[in-house]
Amino acid sequence: MGTQRQNPNRSMSGELAHQIRQYAMLMRLDKPIGIWLLLWPTLWALWIAADGHPDPRIFLVFVCGVIIMRSAGCVINDFADRNIDGQVARTRDRPLSSGQVAPAEAIVLFIALGLIALALVLTLDRLTQALAIVGAVLTIAYPFAKRLIAAPQLILGAAFGWSIPMVFAAQTGEVPRLAWLIWLAVVVWAVIYDTIYAMVDRDDDRKLGVKSTAILFAGADVFIIALLQVILMLAFWLIGAAAHLGRWYFAGTLVAAALFGYQYWLIRQREPERCFRAFLNNHYVGAAIFIGILLDYTFRAVA
């Protein structure tokens, strides 16, 4: 019997599927925790700004925008870290550091995602468009800030919370003080969870010269995280009072406080695997706050 000839179309389709998977991994679509950490504050702001009844079009634009911008942020982050990730056990298999995706491909993908985000924001008002420019700058700045400033998590927090003033602008036409209070709370929250995340790679980062609050806080890291968690809880309660939210919201904040207590228990020995679990647990913090907001407006409307 003759040898079986390989179907060239099947080979090409398999290669295309492999490359698409690599692009999806570069955008971190296989690890949606970043989407959730960006989406939950956006949903908080949408419901509060709209008094519990967000505009469906604005809702869809921001949900899609969160996914696109988080994906773009991951691409530009991995491009900036392409020569570093290969030296860290946790990141050496990322598509850029492993050579599965070329740097030029990553830049093209980042531009494509940026154009999609631009198309989305052009459907909104001028003030929101102006704020989106600041958000884009923060997204690009964060990966490079890790080499320049001791607390790059502040830049990350500013970027992750920037959807909040954008949401208020799109929904109400202005950015009130309440929006900036929520934004500041998200900055504090991002410093908390990204410091915990950075504790996983602290030894590698120190050797490679990558800066983080985990390195900056040193032996006081767990204490400072706990202090920031207390500050964040105070901010949540101030937000509830300013937005005239009721018992359902404050019940959500109590769940968040319990989750913070669990995170403290996980990180107290600074074990990398447990720190990573504590980082992931912040997804439930964001969900608890949103569920409290949602239930508060829902049962207020029923009453």
In short:
The chain has 303 residues and is mainly alpha-helical.
Structural overview:
The chain has 303 residues and is an all-alpha fold. The chain has one domain (26-302): UbiA prenyltransferase (Tetracycline Repressor, domain 2). It has 13 helices and no strands. The chain has helices at residues 8-26, 33-49, 56-80, 103-121, 126-145, 153-160, 163-172, 177-200, 202-208, 213-217, 221-242, 247-267, 272-302. Helix 2 runs antiparallel to helix 3 (56-80) and helix 8 runs antiparallel to helix 13 (272-302). The chain is globular and about 55 Å long. The N and C termini lie far apart (79 Å). The relative contact order is 0.11. Mean pLDDT is 91; it is low at 1-6.
SS element count, helices: 13
- Which fold does the CATH topology refer to? Tetracycline Repressor, domain 2
Quaternary organization: single chain
Helical proportion? over 70%
